[in-house]
Write a structure and sequence with these properties.
heterodimer; A: 9 helices; 28% helix; globular; B: alpha/beta
Chain lengths: 325, 333
Amino acid sequence: MLPEPLLEIKQLKKYYEIKKGWFQPMQQVRAVDDVTFTVYKGETFGLVGESGCGKSTTGRAILRLQEHTSGEIRFAGRDISGLPYTEMRQLRRKMQMVFQDPYASLNPKKTILQILTEPLRVHGLYAPEERVQKAIEMLEIVGLSEYHLHSYPHEFSGGQRQRIGIARAVILQPELIIADEPVSALDVSIQSQVINLLLQLQRDFHLTYIFISHDLGVVRHMTDRVGVMYLGKLVEQAKTEELFRSPKHPYTRALLSAVPIRHPDEKKERVVLKGDVPSPLNPPEGCHFHPRCPDCMQICKTEKPPVVEVGDHVVACHLYATENR
Amino acid sequence: MRERAPILEVRQLKTHIKTANGIVKAVDGVDFTIYEGETVGIVGESGCGKSMTSLSVMGLLPKPMAYIESGHIHFAGRDLTQLSEKEMRKLRGNDISMIFQEPMTSLNPVFTIGQQLSEPLKQHTRLNKKEIRNAVISMLQSVGIPRAEQIIDEYPHQLSGGMRQRVMISLAMLCQPKLLIADEPTTALDVTIQAQILELMKAIKATTNMAMMLITHDLGVVAEMCDRVMVMYAGQVVESADVRTIFNRPTHPYTQGLLASMPTANERKGELSSIPGSVPRPDEIPPGCAFAPRCSIATDRCRQERPVLQAYENQWTRCWHPISKPSEVTHAT
């Protein structure tokens, strides 16, 4: 059975204009620059990368929480990149988001009941009494209880808040959930509880996830396919196991080798990258990664790398371009 | 290694915090020793008292809310709890230094890197201006900062997070301290930058005889850096042993739970083993074992009687029912 694409992103771009002064020309930050990928029904697609690589912006642009500059976003076969505000709003019933910071993403003035029934009210689903029933059901699914219905967010711990954030997203029974670093702010023992909850919800409600994270351990555990981003570009895409087994792009290799060891006796060969991620205001010419790349060639400094398929990987790197092989 | 001289000995340290709802026992009777040249990791989740322990050692507790209730901190033969603020100042930055978690906020934004780095040298040495400048530049170069001669006159906002953490490390290393306390030194950094900083700290350790107290919640960092590990829970040390013993044969159920919940320790896509519940707030710690409500093997004894820290050869554990006794370990290995 061929997997059915749920979300197709084609050449998505998001540029920000930055004022440098009255008479200076505007400068452009290419936060997301020509990103193309497809997410299939029922899978978990991971977006990884370091801070500032554009992974969160990509997530927000898909939901059109931030307007993208150009590109195509097809959701269930329909191009949603140009939909008017009201239609997009209705469509968000099918696409929901879970945010990183469970302390900032819940309104402190609302009770859990209000937080959970608001999406139902906005979308005009169910009668008011039924909504309360739904909220209770949802709380139980995420491991809280009816008892918490009239509490306020400050009464909960970080892990419980994240559960509420997840409940708020799942209560609409969406098809796609974009989870932006959902477990990064949590302690290790709580992190595993929330990961388990996400996996269980995926099985029970047939959800499709876009899982944005910088934690490669969690990504390896959760996702089916992974896209690696660097300075606004998608540099490599592959099945998770495949990517972790034999990374192709030099950046992916360095990123994977930087993960701390799991056991004191483990020996790891490490590609330590020199320097920092360059400023996206002024990215290097040619391949954005070339100043830090251990395999940099002459062509990398001047020309943008082509996107090529290497086995099951899709890689943007001159190393794998046909003429260089 | 055990023949080395102890640098820091903490005995029955109790640090309390006064709050509107009464006194919170942030650190509740912690004992440990750090020897010359070794790295000791302190692991635990947020609120377990690991940062308060380090602040107590540094004498940087936010007074008057937090204070050392009882206990001793012996450093190089002196009891730090008895020293005056003036005497502590002579020690801080000179014999004991600290690296903080947030490289963004721990440098002063209105002074140049050079001005901030020359401070400890002005305080603790008799070098003249030129010598100080040279010392700072060579320190910056040794932590891998490019263009050190220019960076010295720049402000913190001009540097990236990784660079700022390097500056913090060079600041801590300037007076060649005997003990370095690193509180989550890489938590705010990206993985590739974290790898750079860890390599740097390993290189520094290889060339000096400095002892290090590394506070972290990341077990990967512990595996990478530490010789010995202390696991803290609710203000107490629950387990302490050398790093291999902790990873191979953890005896305390909490340590076991932490290790088992690492995603890499589990089958992909499978259910992660996790510790139920969450860390208790300091005001709701039960009378018995603090971990009992979340422990799968807790008995009535655990719920009523607080366990003591017991020694099994080189391993200490605070549990009535330690899971694998180290005597079995010696047979097994």
